[in-house]
């Protein structure tokens, strides 16, 4: 495992290894002794083209707790691909730090970085995917349902976006069934679904345009914003087209009693999810957010700490 750019690049064994390391580091931290300094002397450069709370804090704190250092760079100072080419930025950083994590618009910036260095490149979200979020989400399912999730079902309701794609991909690798309801025109790209199914013909994937159709038989219901970063101009149109896709008490009443609710956050309360669901007994959104710290430690420890 050299980089963490997209879930599709990982084998199930590699995903399970990252999760095992993440869970072990979480247990070690919970023991009160803190983590071993497995990244002592190492630095992660973190580059943001878009805003972030969870991703920034989880990676920076993870580096600190593992004995390393993090440098946070905003795009107004770096100008990735504008002030300087992606390749040149990467070559410069490679002589000074031990890994680069980036949140970008165009996914190809991440693959271009990886093509220009042997140090780890980590995807902190691109328009295409959000693999580190998906790892934390699976940790949260493990916390609820146990280590073997094969045969469980994750249901995603909303936009067929970066978060949805990484979830579909990780579910396909771990034997988790995945169902998704989106408005017409907001489905996961068919080429991506075809590629996932080609790699995992046994993957149980269901797509619908009706939320009621996918919540009846599930273990977890997931949603994300209807307006991702960079889509602000489409907001009015999207809010209209996603009408009926809100996670609310009426929809939740149609799901099995044990089904939990997840959201990668930030949540737009009253839009894609109601307060009563977010703050209700079936919500796991805050433990899910906290698992970002542990999942990101797993990624860093494996890629940079030889774990
Ligand atoms: N879920 C997530 O990636 O949150 P941030 O955008 O705050 O990092
Ligand atoms: N789909 C959202 C996720 C935010 C964490 C976005 O890309 O803005």
From TrEMBL:
<feature type="domain" description="Aspartate/ornithine carbamoyltransferase carbamoyl-P binding">
    <location>
        <begin position="2"/>
        <end position="141"/>
    </location>
</feature>
<dbReference type="InterPro" id="IPR006130">
    <property type="entry name" value="Asp/Orn_carbamoylTrfase"/>
</dbReference>
<dbReference type="GO" id="GO:0004585">
    <property type="term" value="F:ornithine carbamoyltransferase activity"/>
</dbReference>
<dbReference type="GO" id="GO:0019240">
    <property type="term" value="P:citrulline biosynthetic process"/>
</dbReference>
<dbReference type="Pfam" id="PF02729">
    <property type="entry name" value="OTCace_N"/>
</dbReference>
<protein>
    <recommendedName>
        <fullName>Ornithine carbamoyltransferase</fullName>
        <ecNumber>2.1.3.3</ecNumber>
    </recommendedName>
</protein>
<dbReference type="GO" id="GO:0016597">
    <property type="term" value="F:amino acid binding"/>
</dbReference>
<dbReference type="InterPro" id="IPR006132">
    <property type="entry name" value="Asp/Orn_carbamoyltranf_P-bd"/>
</dbReference>
<comment type="similarity">
    <text>Belongs to the aspartate/ornithine carbamoyltransferase superfamily. OTCase family.</text>
</comment>
<dbReference type="InterPro" id="IPR002292">
    <property type="entry name" value="Orn/put_carbamltrans"/>
</dbReference>
<keyword id="KW-0808">Transferase</keyword>
<dbReference type="Pfam" id="PF00185">
    <property type="entry name" value="OTCace"/>
</dbReference>
<dbReference type="GO" id="GO:0042450">
    <property type="term" value="P:L-arginine biosynthetic process via ornithine"/>
</dbReference>
<dbReference type="InterPro" id="IPR036901">
    <property type="entry name" value="Asp/Orn_carbamoylTrfase_sf"/>
</dbReference>
<feature type="domain" description="Aspartate/ornithine carbamoyltransferase Asp/Orn-binding">
    <location>
        <begin position="151"/>
        <end position="302"/>
    </location>
</feature>
<dbReference type="InterPro" id="IPR006131">
    <property type="entry name" value="Asp_carbamoyltransf_Asp/Orn-bd"/>
</dbReference>
């Amino acid at each position: 495992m050299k980089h963490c750019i997209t879930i599709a690049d990982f084998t199930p064994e590699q995903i399970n290894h990252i999760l095992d390391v993440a869970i072990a580091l979480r247990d070690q931290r919970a023991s009160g002794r803190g983590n071993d300094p497995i990244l002592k002397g190492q630095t992660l450069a973190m580059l943001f083209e878009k805003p972030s709370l969870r991703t920034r804090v989880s990676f920076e704190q993870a580096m600190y707790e593992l004995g390393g250092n993090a440098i946070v760079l905003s795009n107004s100072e770096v100008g990735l691909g504008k002030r300087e080419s992606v390749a040149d930025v990467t070559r410069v950083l490679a002589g000074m730090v031990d890994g680069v994590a980036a949140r970008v618009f165009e996914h190809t910036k991440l693959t271009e970085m990886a093509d220009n260095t042997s140090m780890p490149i980590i995807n902190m979200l691109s328009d295409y995917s959000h693999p580190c979020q998906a790892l934390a989400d699976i940790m949260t399912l493990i916390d609820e349902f146990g280590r073997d999730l094969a045969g469980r079902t994750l249901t995603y309701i909303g936009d067929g976006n970066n978060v949805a794609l990484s979830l579909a991909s990780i579910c396909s690798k771990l034997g988790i069934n995945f169902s998704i309801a989106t408005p017409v025109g907001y489905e996961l790209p068919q080429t991506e679904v075809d590629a996932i199914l080609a790699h995992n013909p046994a993957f149980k994937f269901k797509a619908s345009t009706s939320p009621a159709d996918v919540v009846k038989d599930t273990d977890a219901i997931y949603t994300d914003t209807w307006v991702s970063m960079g889509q602000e101009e489409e907001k009015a149109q999207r809010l209209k087209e996603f009408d009926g896709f809100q996670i609310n008490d009426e929809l939740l009443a149609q799901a099995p009693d044990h089904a939990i609710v997840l959201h990668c956050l930030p949540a737009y309360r009253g839009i894609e999810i109601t307060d009563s669901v977010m703050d209700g007994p079936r919500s796991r959104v805050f433990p899910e957010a906290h698992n970002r710290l542990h999942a990101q430690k797993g990624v860093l420890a494996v890629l940079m700490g030889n774990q």
